[in-house]
Each structure stands twice: as structure tokens, then as C-alpha cells.
EmrB/QacA subfamily drug resistance transporter (Cytobacillus eiseniae), 509 residues
Amino acid sequence: MDHSIKKTDRPPYGIIAVLMIGAFIAFLNNTLLNVALPSMMEDLQVGASTVQWLTTGYMLVNGILIPATAFLIEKYSVRRLFLAAMLLFTIGTLVAGVAHVFPVLLAGRMLQASGSAIMMPLLMNVMLVSFPIEKRGVAMGFFGLILMAAPAIGPTLSGWIIERYDWRMLFHFVTPIAFIVLLIGFFLLKDKKEKKDIHLDIKSLLLSSLGFGGILYGFSSAGDKGWGSPHVYATIAIGVVTLTWFILRQIRMENPMLNFKVYKYPMFALSSAITMVVNMAMFSGMLLIPIYVQTIRGISPMDAGLMMLPGALIMAVMSPVTGKLFDKFGGRILAVTGLIILTVTTYYFSQLTDETTYAYLVVLNSIRMFGMSMVMMPVSTNGLNQLPPRFYPHGTAMNNTLNQVAGAIGTALLVTVMSTRTETHATKLAADMMNNMTAQPTEAVLTEMKHQIEMTAMLHGINDAFFIATGIAAVAIILSFFIKRAKQAEDPLKGKESDGKVATKLAEN
């Protein structure tokens, strides 16, 4: 008997609820960590280039494992995948919480990443299979509400914990919750799956790992090592060559690990391009605003987290509303409107001064997040709606992987712009200041001047990076005008098999 999840009049809300709780915990833990990095550097006696591996390593593991999730979803049941993912995440959280040296902390972080890499595509796939196209907007909207709640409360909660406790409390706080979710999943998830005779192509997995991993590592290292480093361009070159080899192999295979034929469907290809571009622009706010408020303005981590809170809450609350609007009006009007708001507010962020008020930053970031809420979920859902059901695991895996790549590229690009422009501005400011001097300054005055030049130059560098991000967002506006309401395409394999069944039936979860 087939006990797999299928699209029915009554979706499996219990399974979806358990998966969403697991995804929420994974997202919450990720947002808790950012504010804690300075404390970890001090306690573990490591530098910024070392501690950033907690983020880069997490991204690398996701980039390596997510492409394989399409195969895992087709091969194994939701129950087995969820329990494996939560077990890995729980063990990783426990290890990180007891770490007293950096390598142990990094190992725990990698285990967490391996669990969350499986979690997100699995949840997206269940949502796509469980809801018909005309109801997916609302479903994905509530999915967004759950996931946006994590970044809404994460930074503020992290700031509060760090000011009162050791950074390890961030992991101790999550560990019992993750263990409870694991137990709930063990007792509540009962779905079964017919055995499928498919096997993972090891060569494809190795090529995918080297390809996506090389690109992610190269771009992630560029912000720290600089573009002139052979370490950077060599790993990117290896990644590009290996990824090209991987893509050519997948196209020739009858049962590919990651099916690139999803790009034969124009709305999916367009949505993938838009979300990648938006991810690159979005990292400007996630990366540059904390640097501005904490380094230049001297605002505390807790107040910095509180500053981001209203915007994150607006994005969370708007998710179900946007979902309903998507079901009614489609994705184009939402995407165009949201991207215009995103582009304009990003431009205003490129005009920051050392006197910009806290309230202005809160309001501007809130408006920016309001615009963002109209873009990501409607655009990606519209693209996935065009795919035949057997392509859902490949579409969700592709989107999640490319978003990781886009995030790495966006981070590297904006850090590079900020760093190089900061150096340029510092040189010019120093020259102007020396030309205007009428007497030899004292050492104390020189020290003060140097600090002033550094802060002013960094401010200008941040503004320049935001200006580049504005241009990136503008590209997404142009692309969004080509969005059309997607209808599910006919599966080319339908009816061609001797038994009348589709060869790769996604409804088996």
C-alpha cells in the first residue's frame, strides 16, 4: 500500500507543523550566532579571519549537501530524513555548547549545517506536494511567517543573552528545544515510502561538492584575503571548471542527482535569476548596517538587534498577507512593487552620515523589509508552480543552492567594494587634511586625526557599497516585468512508461 504524502483535500498539517518547528529552530540558531562572534573571538583567542569560518563553513556545508537533497527526498521518507536532520542538528548544537577550543566549536557548527541543509528543501517539497497551485500562496505565506519570526527575535535575544551570560548559553538554550522537536518527530511522523531502486552517483556528488564548495569558499574568502590572493581565484576557477563538468554530466544522465532540466521552464528560470540577484542586494543590509551602527556609531549589540526587530516583524507579519495577494493577483505586481521599494530604500542607505538618527534607521530598514516581503516568496513560488511534480525536489534544491552561492558572491562583492573604497577615501582624506595643516600636529592630535579619517573613510565605503547594491536591485526590477502567472507544465514523461506511471513520482515522500 502507498502511504506516501499526496495532494489531497486535507493536507498533512501535523507533518507540516513538525517540519516547520524544526526549520524554525535551525533558523533561530543561525540568527543567534552573528551578535556573538566578537565574544567568541575574545574567549577562544581567535581572529576575525578564523571566526568567520563559523559562517563560511556553515555556508559551505549547505552548498555541498543541498544539491544532494533532491536524491534524498526521492529515495527516503519524510520521517527518516527529518529524524536524521534533527539528530545531526541536535548533536551539533550539543557539541558547540560544550566547546572550549575553536576546532570543536567549528565541528559542532558543521554538524548543525548538515542537519539544516536537509531540513529546508524537505519542508519546501512537502509544502509543494501538499497544496494545489491555487492555494500555495497562502501556505507559503504562513511558511514565511514561521521562518521570518526567527530573524525577528534572534538578534535581540542573542544580544540579551550575550550581555548576561557566556556565549555558550546560545547553544544550551537551543539544545533542549531541538531534542524535544526530535522526540515529537519520532512519535508523530508515521509516513512510509515504497522502496525505490535509485542510487546516488558518487562521481556527481564529488563534482557537486568541489564545484559549489569551491565557488562558495572562493567568494567567501575574497572579503578577507582580497581578490589578488591566488587562494581566492584558484578555488573559484576550480569550482567553475568542476561545476561545468558536473552540469554536463547531469544533462547526460538518465537519473541525475540534480536535474538541470528545470531551467527549460521559463518562469522557474526567471524566478531563480531574480531571487539570486535579490539575495546579492539583500546582503547589503545584513552585512553593512551592523558594521555601520556598531563600528561607526558605537551602538551596542542589543540596541543594534532592536533596531532590526521592527523590520523583521513586518516581514514576518506580511508573509501570509503577501501569500493571499499572490493567490489573487499573481507574482508580477507584488515583485515589481516590492523591488521598487527595496531599490529606493537601499539608495537612501547609501546616503548615511555620522549624524543619521537611530529612528531614521529603524524606519528606513522597516520600509525596506516591507518591500522585501513582497518579493522572495511570491517570486520563488511562482517559478516552482510551473514545474511538473517530479521536478519539485530538484527545483527546491536548485533554489536553495543558488541562494547560498548568490549570498557568498554578494557578500564578497560588497565587502570588496567597501574595503577598496574605504582605502581610497582614507588616502584622499589624509592628503586633504595634511594640505590644510598650518603647523606640525602633536602625537595625540595625529592619533585623533587617524581615527577620524578611518571612521569617515569607512562611512563613505559603506555608502559606496550600498550604492552598488542599489544597482543590483534595479536589475531585479527589470527582470520582474517579465513575470507571468505560472501554470503547471505537462510532464514530458507522462504516459510514456509501459505501466502508465510517471517514472519518477514525487508524491512519494
